[in-house]
């Protein structure tokens, strides 16, 4: 697994168009729903005429944990949902997910620590399952 300070991911050998449905299924298996799907390639082409490789941002949410987090920190909606990106690279299809502990850690509310750990564990399992 590839680690970033704010995310984690891996490169898959399969093509982008096969990887996206697999990522969605892996998220579903861990209790996440996909609330948003942003086709970055199409958006940049339409808005500013830029051509780039396939790139999608999936806004993933576990409603139970989101509800608990919003009860502890109502403004947390500014940081939701948890983003997962899927995009083409020369090496294959890259899939990366936000590190929930890093994301929620910026808030500084200890009531979110347990929630962040639980969400982080689930997102890690999603990446590992791919």
Explain what this protein looks like in three dimensions.
The protein has five helices and six strands, in the order ββαβαβαββαα. The chain is of the alpha+beta class. The chain has a six-stranded antiparallel β-sheet with strand order 1-2-6-5-4-3. Helix 1 packs across helix 5.
Number of contiguous helices: 5
Beta content:
25-35%
Low-confidence stretches: none
Secondary structure tally: strands: 6
Task: Summarize the amount of helix as a percent range.
Answer: 40-55%
> Can you summarize the main beta sheet?
6 strands, antiparallel
CA-based shape: globular
Order of helices and strands: EEHEHEHEEHH
**How far apart are the first and last residues' alpha carbons, in Å?**
10 Å
**Mean pLDDT across all amino acids:** 95
Radius of gyration, taken over Cα atoms and rounded to an integer in Å: 15 Å
Strand line-up across the major sheet: 1-2-6-5-4-3
Structural class of the secondary structure composition? alpha+beta
């Amino acid at each position: 697994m590839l680690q970033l300070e704010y995310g984690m991911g891996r490169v898959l050998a399969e093509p982008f168009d096969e990887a996206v449905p697999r990522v969605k299924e892996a998220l579903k298996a861990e209790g996440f729903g996909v609330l948003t799907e942003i086709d970055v390639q199409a958006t940049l082409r339409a808005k500013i005429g830029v051509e780039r490789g396939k790139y999608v941002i999936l806004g993933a949410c576990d409603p139970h944990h989101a509800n608990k987090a919003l009860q502890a920190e109502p403004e947390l909606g500014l940081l939701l949902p948890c983003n997962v990106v899927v995009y083409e690279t020369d090496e294959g299809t890259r899939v990366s997910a936000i590190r929930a502990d890093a994301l929620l850690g910026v808030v500084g509310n200890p009531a979110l620590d347990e929630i962040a750990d639980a969400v982080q564990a689930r997102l890690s399992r999603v990446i590992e399952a791919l």
